[in-house]
Amino acid sequence: CNLSTDLTPSELITQQLPWEILPPGENPWPKIHEVIIKSKFPRKAQVLRDEIFQSRIDLLESFNPNFKATGKNGYSGYVIFGYQTKNLFVLESLFQNNATYIFRENWEYLSQLTKAQILSNQLHDQRIIHTPQWKNELAARLR
Predict the structure, then answer these.
(1) Most buried of the four, 55, 71, 97, 114, by CB within 10 Å?
(2) What is the dihedral sign for C-alpha 58, 60, 65, 67?
(3) Mean pLDDT of the chain, nearest integer
(4) What is the 3-class SS of 38-84, one letter each residue?
């Protein structure tokens, strides 16, 4: 990534990367998980999902990332929030019932792998599942 190392939070850069962030691959979880999740969140809950997503993005932006990047599919997947001064790179999903992945190094390479590859090889620094405790866990990590 061609980013200046002296960026200040007010110079937030949004860039589009030439790869898909956490591309689809082998599903690391049983299919029954999808059925359970879909039954918990009916389509009519779209407004609530949008509000939840916006509050997650607001929290990530409140910690003043140096940059924000999307993959080749734009905002239809994961977004990367780079906190270079903390050496933390947070990959946040636009979709509910996913997880937030945090990397310390090699985020460019790791963000091109599938979730199954990352999880099976324990390549992430931290994985925070979207639960009611998500905000507290993430905030504690970014402080």
Answers:
(1) 71
(2) negative
(3) 79
(4) HHHCCHHHHHHHHHHHHHHHHHHHHCCCCEEEEECCEEEEEEEEEEH
